[in-house]
Amino acid sequence: MPIGIATFTLFDGDGIESSERLAFINRDKTLRIGLTTDRKEYMPGDKVEVKLKTTDQSGSPVRANLSY
Q1: Of 38, 44, 55, 57, which residue is most buried, by most CB within 10 angstroms?
Q2: pTM, entire model
Q3: Residues 23-43, buried b or exposed e (16+ Cβ, 10 A)?
Q4: Does 21 score more than 70 pLDDT?
């Protein structure tokens, strides 16, 4: 991705937008973000537990300042 601001949008199974976030992309620093959830499927209104893991290009853990 080029340096700049990217928009990430999450859609449900019916293609309806559920959330959107902006992110600043800096090519000089590569950050890999892994995301896992506690279940594969959810019903409307269910609590979603998300775990994020941030690493560098070599897979070493990297501290990150993220927001939601």
Answers
A1: 55
A2: 0.50
A3: eeeeeeeeeeeeeeeeeeeee
A4: yes
